[in-house]
Amino acid sequence: MGLGMHLGAWRYREGAAADYLDPRYYTEIARIAEDAKLHAIFLADTLALSEEHLRRPNLGALDPVVVLATLASVTSKIGLVATMSTTFNEPYNLARRFASLDHLSGGRVGWNVVTTFVPDVAANFGSANLPAHDDRYRRAGEFVEVVAALWDSWAEDALIGDKESDRFADPALVRPIDHAGAHFAVRGPLTVPRSPQRRPVIFQAGASEDGRNLAARTADVVFTVQNTLEAAREFRADLRARAPRREVKVLPGVVPIIGATREDALRRKEELDRLAGDEELRKLALRVGVPVDALDPDRPLPLELVRANTDFNASHGFRAAAVRLTEEEGVTVRELLYRNGGGHLQIVGTAADVADTLAHWFTCGAADGFNLMIDVLPDGLTRFTEGVLPLLRARGLFHDDYPGATLRANLGLTQGAR
Amino acid sequence: MGLGMHLGAWRYREGAAADYLDPRYYTEIARIAEDAKLHAIFLADTLALSEEHLRRPNLGALDPVVVLATLASVTSKIGLVATMSTTFNEPYNLARRFASLDHLSGGRVGWNVVTTFVPDVAANFGSANLPAHDDRYRRAGEFVEVVAALWDSWAEDALIGDKESDRFADPALVRPIDHAGAHFAVRGPLTVPRSPQRRPVIFQAGASEDGRNLAARTADVVFTVQNTLEAAREFRADLRARAPRREVKVLPGVVPIIGATREDALRRKEELDRLAGDEELRKLALRVGVPVDALDPDRPLPLELVRANTDFNASHGFRAAAVRLTEEEGVTVRELLYRNGGGHLQIVGTAADVADTLAHWFTCGAADGFNLMIDVLPDGLTRFTEGVLPLLRARGLFHDDYPGATLRANLGLTQGAR
């Protein structure tokens, strides 16, 4: 979230740069989103201050569970999804934190499982280097397993609460998990009785082979970087094939840049890009794993150099998306930057343009929904809720009200409920 | 907090046993406390479900930072103090969590530093046994040092936020901490700019030699188990002598059991004790480190057996308080149980009785204030706020309104502000 997903957002918007530390800012965004009946607020998490975070507000600066907990008591329906790393947390603490928030929000919580690919983080947790990609994913697989077992450790009717007979809980229905694995030994049970969703909704965003397999095994929702319809369809089909017996919703990220006219949208986009300055080029270099001076705006990405980086340890999804655009369309770095650095799908246009694209992706089987990456907050969000949502509603593609009481129900997930 | 500090509270009160999982319950308590201008809400933390927690609601079942974050947005002045263990957390995560909540609450956060003495916890974090007492305290000392350095890693004016000149932060004013110690290696800086209090208020409750030294070195507020005026005065004098150049506020815990008359208070107490049943005896056995069947209600604590337990690894403060009452007053186990298991000072009487005792302890130098351990919530709290506070106000011993904007200011702590 930060102050908007565009790197120039903090300079473009009206409010102060320090708004990303202000509870009123978050409350305002949450209220707009809930009034519009959006499914959830989704927050990133950043466990290190990298150089780039001194040049613009950091998307995941504040602890996302803390932010969402403050929002739980000023909202009543919208989902609250926090990113949290399996590499730099303990499963008992994490399971307890999400179960606590699931109780206090009435069943509206989701956990976006990440393994953390930012190298700077390791040095804040006692290590010179991040664990290797496959080590992180092995730990993540076991971590999610432990957390799920802890969430299940109280049976539904374990809490009796009969004052008369002095029976608070039924010991037979509260069980240790006795997990002993390669990474964790956790006895359990959790301190927290079963929460409204039992298991908070599991989000994931792995695009690598390890990431897809973990998602297929454990995720309810997969958040993915896709910038062409065909690749998005393939990705969704691939994930569904890997999880034939599980429900998995696939949500590509999308960056809508909306104007009253296309020209107006283009002006917004160009002004944002101007304000972002060199930030986008630096970000692209990090995303594809090459030095920034290896990128010439007038030439395509140096794919040989990209592929030569065999130590690449960052997001496979972002790199693959940028490489794909370069290969398939032969775009220059400048064009890539213009198209959101080759990352999430960007739609620059009117509300009708955005609605058309989203509807098309949805009906073509490229998406079960979208993770909105709002360019500038709160302004870009109201452009979406006031402009795009009525058009989607008119086509029967978006609900008029929340259909259920929990995030799981509102996402149409029928499995995994209590 | 739970549903009240008395072990019989959940059966005595009107509400449901599951209220301790309900956000409306916490909001109600917070509003009563804030309307009365109490300084802070103080929450325990429990990282394991012990057998006893199947017999009554667990005081620290929910993650306390999550609970307090939900309360931050429905309160505006009251302090929010969460207990969190230095043995089972990472300093970077903890520093970031508290700094985040300090921002989102406008500077109302405190951290109660504990090393965790409950043996069951270790098994939820990969170890058969808790680290030894002195190991835990060495880690705690270094942990607090790292956290404080992280809180200081952004200078006050580091966040510039000048959109025009594209200067978000001043890199020269945001510094790595480069900590390399026996337990932690943490580079920093924190992802979060300096929060309103800079350093959330540090609470501590160590009563052992190690605990007192850590408190003298790092705590702003010391929460202590004291059940005689003389011992409380000695403790406070001892701590102040250990910290000659630092401000340290000493707050003994106090359990007021308030009735309209003394007879009424006694009836409340007896009914609570009856409802608690054997729980109090079991709790006392754990607190002093002997098997429950070694306790005979009609005889004093078996002090030889208590002293023979050289592996004692639980709260030194609780054990010392129970031993002291036994030694000084020769009380039986039954009398000890009646007096809150020899733990925190218990006052059974009218609001005037409670006000008299608190005023006496305060004016005698036994306390700078008190940590209220309310018997039954919310009822016991309103008895205190409506009965006792007006009497303390009439004597000029309690403020009519919050004097400051931050918890640090409201506690009268003048050092350590930004």
TrEMBL record, chains A, B:
Xref: Gene3D superfamilies: Luciferase-like domain
Keywords tagged on the record: Flavoprotein, FMN, Monooxygenase, Oxidoreductase
Matches recorded under InterPro entries: Diverse_substr_monoxygenases, Luciferase-like_dom, Luciferase-like_sf, NTA_MOA
Coiled-coil ranges per UniProt: none
Positions contributing to FMN binding: 45, 83, 133, 137, 208
GO molecular function (one): monooxygenase activity
Domain Luciferase-like: 18-365
One Pfam family from the record: Bac_luciferase
Record carries keyword Disulfide bond: no
UniProt record similarity statement: Belongs to the NtaA/SnaA/DszA monooxygenase family.
Protein name: LLM class flavin-dependent oxidoreductase
Taxonomic lineage of the native organism: Bacteria, Bacillati, Actinomycetota, Actinomycetes, Pseudonocardiales
